UniProtKB/TrEMBL annotation:
<feature type="binding site">
    <location>
        <position position="39"/>
    </location>
    <ligand>
        <name>Fe cation 2</name>
    </ligand>
</feature>
<feature type="active site" description="Proton donor">
    <location>
        <position position="68"/>
    </location>
</feature>
<feature type="binding site">
    <location>
        <position position="40"/>
    </location>
    <ligand>
        <name>Fe cation 1</name>
    </ligand>
</feature>
<dbReference type="Pfam" id="PF13277">
    <property type="entry name" value="YmdB"/>
</dbReference>
<dbReference type="GO" id="GO:0046872">
    <property type="term" value="F:metal ion binding"/>
</dbReference>
<keyword id="KW-0479">Metal-binding</keyword>
<feature type="binding site">
    <location>
        <position position="180"/>
    </location>
    <ligand>
        <name>Fe cation 1</name>
    </ligand>
</feature>
<dbReference type="InterPro" id="IPR029052">
    <property type="entry name" value="Metallo-depent_PP-like"/>
</dbReference>
<feature type="binding site">
    <location>
        <position position="153"/>
    </location>
    <ligand>
        <name>Fe cation 2</name>
    </ligand>
</feature>
<dbReference type="InterPro" id="IPR005235">
    <property type="entry name" value="YmdB-like"/>
</dbReference>
<feature type="binding site">
    <location>
        <position position="67"/>
    </location>
    <ligand>
        <name>Fe cation 2</name>
    </ligand>
</feature>
<feature type="binding site">
    <location>
        <position position="178"/>
    </location>
    <ligand>
        <name>Fe cation 2</name>
    </ligand>
</feature>
<protein>
    <submittedName>
        <fullName>Metallophosphoesterase</fullName>
    </submittedName>
</protein>
<dbReference type="GO" id="GO:0004113">
    <property type="term" value="F:2',3'-cyclic-nucleotide 3'-phosphodiesterase activity"/>
</dbReference>
<feature type="binding site">
    <location>
        <position position="8"/>
    </location>
    <ligand>
        <name>Fe cation 1</name>
    </ligand>
</feature>
<feature type="binding site">
    <location>
        <position position="39"/>
    </location>
    <ligand>
        <name>Fe cation 1</name>
    </ligand>
</feature>
Length: 270
């Protein structure tokens, strides 16, 4: 089995790059399940329902969100109906939507996608460790599910790595999002869980994490509210990771994906 995860889609250039590239990636790499983080797709802040529909039409099986989940208010009724869009699992009880989605492949195999959000340098949240423990009391890798993929949306690499070690062997992969910078630590842990602290963003890297440079620089220099940040519109790099999965649900390999734009390319073989 092969799972494809594409990182934070930022603005129009990121959306257009993913929509045009994802069908080719699915075909050329023989992808079974494709997941996209869409929380920055709408002008850098949130996800609009029509944009989610376009990502699904391009081949996404599930879309994850994050700390910008509710920046577009239209997503609240949409997420109640469209179960393939998920927000962090450790949002407080009663929050709209869900933090997991269960996908059944044509051959009957089940793949569980979950998202949690970190607590270091982020908004106060329920414990992501306990949140996933509750899910894994019902879902067992290699027994009920052929693969379990977790998106850890957070700032701190230490928190992401600690989380991955805690669930090493219980999930297929823990892949980080949120910082918009692809890390070079992709590997399979001792227990068979694939890990990458951040898969990077799908957006224009001639920017400050996808946003226009002058406005972002001004905020750091003046330490005052400035103009609203806007995504840049240059050529985007599509960033993500490919996870090759063994028959028992553990990861065989984690391979970076980088196509187009300014970053050095990385394209896994089929």
């Amino acid at each position: 089995m092969k799972l494809l995860y594409l990182g934070d889609v930022v603005g129009r250039s990121g959306r257009e790059a993913v929509i045009s590239t994802l069908p080719r990636l699915r075909h050329e790499l023989g992808i079974d399940v494709a997941v996209v983080n869409g929380e920055n797709a709408s002008h850098g802040f949130g996800l609009a329902p029509d944009m989610a529909d376009a990502l699904f039409a391009a081949g996404a099986d599930a879309i994850t969100l994050g700390n910008h989940a509710w920046d577009r208010k239209e997503i609240i009724p949409y997420i109640a109906q469209q179960k393939r869009v998920i927000r962090p699992l450790n949002f407080p009880p009663g929050t709209p939507g869900d933090g997991i989605v269960d996908i059944t492949l044509p051959d009957g195999r089940r793949v569980l996608i979950a998202q949690v959000m970190g607590r270091l340098f982020m908004d106060p949240m329920d414990c992501p460790f306990r949140a996933l423990e509750g899910v894994l009391s019902r879902a067992r890798l290699g027994v009920t599910h052929a693969a379990i993929l977790v998106d850890f949306h957070g700032e701190a690499t230490s928190e992401k790595m600690a989380f991955a070690h805690r669930f090493d062997g219980a999930v297929t992969a823990v892949l980080g999002t949120h910082t918009h910078i692809p890390t070079a630590d992709h590997h399979v842990m001792a227990g068979g869980t694939g890990f990458m602290a951040d898969v990077g963003m799908c957006g224009d890297y001639d920017s400050v994490i996808g946003m226009t440079k002058d406005a972002a620089i001004g905020r750091f220099i003046r330490k005052m509210p400035g103009e609203r940040l806007h995504p840049t519109e240059g050529e985007a790099t599509v960033c993500g990771a490919l996870i090759r999965v063994a028959s028992d649900g553990r990861a065989l390999a984690v391979e970076p994906v980088r196509l187009g734009g300014r970053l050095a390319p990385a394209m896994p073989s089929r």
